[in-house]
Amino acid sequence: MIPSGPEEADEDIIARVLDGDTEAFSLLVRRYQPRMLRLGYGFWKDPDAAEDFAQDVFVKAFVGLAGFKGRSSFSTWLTRIAYNAGINAKRKAGRYEPLEAEPVDSRSLSPEDAHIRAETAAALRRAMAELPEKYAVCLDLYFGEGMKYEDICQATGFPVNTIKSHVFRAKRDLRKALGAGEDSL
User: Fold this and answer.
1) Which end of the chain is more exposed for a tag (fewer CB within 10 A), N or C?
2) What gap in Å lies between CA 154 and CA 28, rounded to an integer?
3) What confidence tens digit (pLDDT) does each residue in 139-175 have?
4) For the chain, which domains are there?
């Protein structure tokens, strides 16, 4: 195995894996595991289930890696695998619920700020739970994961204009639900 740094491009790592250096796949796992865990937690709301989900996604990606054609970025391709796996599983079990990307260390907040943050987060979660699933998924991938519309299109299969519409409508519905002014979101 040839050592590599974190700056090595996904495509180079993939080429190494396809050339027989299967251990190099662990670099991709480390790079994308936080995203897969967040998506898994959005689907399952259970850390153990999120870890199982992420592991399953990486196994599917490893098995299908030879089919990766590079028409999109690896992260988009991996997110599509995760999205499809999650949606297919949730059709049987329930609905997707997005999660904030990174929890804040509450020890760094004053008690008042921590309480306000907790109340705000709870209100946002309640409002997002009322959104249609397709809106919640697009909103979470756009804001929570920082994905571009084109990448969300490739991950979900929704047309770009549909994604833009879903994000716009989700923000509008959240604004109404939270009683925010027109310029708030």
Assistant:
1) N
2) 19
3) 888 887 788 888 888 888 889 999 999 989 988 888 8
4) 8-94 (1.10.1740.10), 109-179 (1.10.10.10)
